[in-house]
Design a protein that fits this description.
Elements: H1 7-28, H2 35-48, E1 52-56, H3 59-69, E2 77-80, H4 87-94, E3 98-101, E4 124-130, H5 139-149, E5 152-156, E6 164-165, E7 168-169, E8 176-180, E9 194-198, H6 201-210, H7 232-242, H8 245-263, E10 276-277, E11 283-286, H9 290-299, H10 329-337, E12 338-341, H11 349-365
Parallel strand pairs: 2-3, 2-4, 4-5, 5-8
Antiparallel strand pairs: 1-9, 6-7, 6-10, 8-9, 11-12
Helix pairs in contact: 1-7, 2-7, 3-4, 3-6, 8-11, 9-11
This protein binds pyridoxal-5'-phosphate (PLP).
Pyridoxal-5'-phosphate (PLP) binds next to helix 3 and helix 4.
């Protein structure tokens, strides 16, 4: 069986730089909140074009701390998408707020901004937009609604490092942007890591205190915080990989274009919104024959993965919210038909051809 993502293929290309950087950190014996985290935060600021960047322990913590910093909690409602990874919702529940779902767009699988207004109540405090699969959500419209109703906006950009709308980087388009550096993400470390970015100096200051036990200075605690720091080794690794991120995303786009070229007529292929730069964290096709395609690929030694088979509003842990099947028809249909194909920067083009051909043959036979 081929891997779904071959992380080793990336590692071997930068092995010397990585080992040298880890070795330096080990020799320095400075492992928490040192030069690497500080420099990585500076580099992310420059890359994304934001005023502030704060390294944290994971993408999940980034979302959690973002909500804390915005004073969102008990009695508040946060509007978001039911088609995301569970962490987006967990963060809302952690702070005691209530997730309120809005169905997604057929084209992008992102939250449909035109369905947001009908869900706004006097308790609504924020919108979390998720750039699913690396495809930019419609931030212009989302920000317009937020402005009209005085809501905060958080971008869950865990899958979208380097994505853009008109040359403006994803993550810089809302009050707070949240990133994950989980190993399989477009920019991934060798463990857990995350980052919060914002143009607000006040919010960044609050988050710096919250990520470190609510402590503005040694053994002074003004609030109950978290232990949620990005560690030096992960930051060092990310600084090495950051040099290649544009190249990695370009390679993803190139392979995505080959898939689309082959498959566009027989399945629903990913769409890139006007003026958007999609970074294909996942290349996901949609077909009524999803299960058959998956099986056929498997039989030929290629894995494929369903992201995500159960929408958030139908998850057991969220039963208390009272949603039921039928509440979000587009999300539910997509969950039944979506399939992510192998796609990573180093994926051999030969395999893109092979996978495409297996799918083409699979759909010819029974049509
Ligand atoms: C990966 C991911 C997260 C969580 O990030 P972790 O670093 O794994 O905690 C949150 N939201 C989305 C959309 C993700 O894909």
């Amino acid at each position: 069986m081929k891997p779904f993502i071959d992380l080793k293929a990336q590692y071997v290309n930068i092995k010397e730089e990585i080992l040298e950087c880890i070795n330096e950190i080990l020799e320095s014996s400075h492992y928490i909140l040192g030069e690497n985290v500080k420099n990585f935060e500076e580099e992310v600021k420059t890359y994304l074009g934001v005023k502030e960047a704060v390294g944290v322990a994971s993408g999940t913590d980034a979302l959690h701390l973002a909500l804390r910093a915005l004073n969102i909690g008990k009695g508040d409602e946060v509007i978001t998408t039911p088609f995301t990874f569970f962490a987006t919702i967990e963060a809302i529940v952690y702070v005691g707020a209530k997730p309120v779902f809005v169905d997604i767009e057929e084209e992008t699988y992102n939250i449909d901004p035109y369905k947001i207004e009908e869900k706004i109540t006097p308790n609504t405090k924020a919108i979390i937009a998720v750039h699913i699969f690396g495809c930019p959500a419609n931030m212009e419209k989302i920000n317009e609604i937020a402005k009209k109703y005085g809501l905060k906006v958080i971008e869950d950009a865990a899958q979208a490092f380097g994505a853009k709308i008109k040359d403006i980087k994803i993550g810089s388009l809302a009050d707070i942007g949240c990133f994950s550096f989980y190993p399989s993400k477009n920019l991934g470390c060798f463990g857990d890591g995350g980052m919060i970015v914002t143009n607000s100096v006040d919010l960044a200051e609050k988050i710096r205190i919250l990520r470190n036990h609510g402590s503005p200075g040694r053994y002074i605690h003004d609030t109950i915080g978290l232990n949620s720091r990005l560690d030096e080794i992960q930051a060092g690794i990310l600084r090495v990989k950051m040099k290649y991120i544009d190249q990695y995303n370009e390679l993803r786009r190139k392979k995505a274009a080959i898939y689309t070229n082959f498959l566009n007529d027989i399945v629903i292929t990913p769409k890139e919104p006007l003026n958007a730069y999609h970074v294909y964290h996942l290349y996901s096709i949609r077909s009524k024959e999803r299960d058959r395609i998956k099986e056929m690929l498997y039989n030929h030694g290629f894995p494929s993965v369903v992201y995500y088979p159960i929408p958030m509003h139908l998850q057991g842990a969220l039963k208390f919210l009272g949603y039921k099947e039928g509440d979000f028809p587009i999300t539910e249909a997509v969950s039944k038909e979506i399939l992510s194909l192998p796609l990573y920067p180093e994926l051999p083009e030969e395999e893109v051809f092979q996978i495409s051909q297996i799918i083409m043959r699979c759909l010819q036979k029974n049509s």
